[in-house]
Specification:
Elements lengths: L4 E4 L9 H10 L5 E6 L11 H9 L6 E6 L7 H6 L4 E4 L7 H10 L3 E6 L17 E5 L14 H15 L4 E5 L7 H6 L4 E4 L1 H4 L4 H13 L1
Parallel strand pairs: 1-8, 2-3, 3-4, 4-5, 5-6, 6-7, 7-8
The structure holds D-xylitol-5-phosphate and zinc ion.
């Protein structure tokens, strides 16, 4: 297994102090900053866009920013996020009319590209695009809100996608997003994930560093 990635979702951060919050989780050992973009159209919530991504870069945040697009359509906003300093951009295949084109657009913009699968979205979308993926993100909750419970069926889906990745020979991260906690991260890792988004579990904790360390310990147990 490659070095596991811990990616705190800033959806659960204190938005009034976003720069400090991101600095704090990076100082606490986080690897990526998970940046949830919601449009009140593809998902029933509205969050942040490229200006906030740019503001984090201007604030001095150097860690990879993992932009999770929950928007429809997706293509128009991709160059804006690349320009704003995004490192990884993922989108939901059913939100794009032309999946191959959107993936290519992300890479052409200089970012790593990924597809995101909702709990009930079939993984057959992967069949013809494995060579264009840097990340596959499996949602373990329905997208739109932080603080929901992990859907256990995700474990089987993770195992399926893990073997697809291993058999493909491509270097693709398997990321999981939703309801990831200190006490379930071990079984999620055992199912094949190697990048872990956690919002409420980290930002609602008193001690970010202790929480991230406990997560890492349980991943490798
Ligand atoms: C949900 C978002 C997640 C969310 C995770 O639509 O994509 O990133 O913030 O939050 P927790 O870890 O609280 O489930
Ligand atoms: Zn997310």
């Amino acid at each position: 297994m490659r070095k596991p990635i811990i990616a705190p979702s800033i959806l659960s951060a204190d938005f009034a102090r976003l720069g400090e919050e991101v600095e704090a989780v990076i100082a606490a050992g986080a690897d990526w900053v998970h940046f949830d973009v919601m449009d009140n159209h593809y998902v029933p919530n509205l969050t942040i866009g490229p200006m906030v991504c740019k503001a984090l870069r201007n604030h001095g945040i150097e860690a990879p920013i993992d932009v999770h697009l929950m928007v429809k359509p997706v293509d128009r906003i991709i160059p804006d996020f690349a320009e704003a300093g995004a490192s990884i951009i993922t989108f939901h295949p059913e939100a794009s009319e032309h999946i191959d084109r959107s993936l290519q657009l992300i890479r052409d913009s200089g970012c790593q590209a990924g597809l995101v699968f909702n709990p009930a979205t079939p993984i057959h979308y992967l069949e013809h695009v494995m060579d264009k993926l840097d990340v596959i993100l499996l949602m373990s909750v329905n997208p739109g809100f932080g603080g929901q419970s992990f859907i256990p069926q995700t474990l089987n889906k993770l195992k399926q996608v893990r073997s697809l990745i291993d058999n493909s020979g491509y270097d693709i991260r398997l990321e999981v997003d939703g309801g990831v906690k200190v006490d379930n991260i071990g079984e999620i890792a055992a199912a094949g994930a190697d990048a872990f988004v956690a919002g409420s579990a980290i930002f609602n904790a008193e001690d970010y560093q202790a929480t991230i360390e406990s997560m890492r310990q349980n991943i490798t147990k």
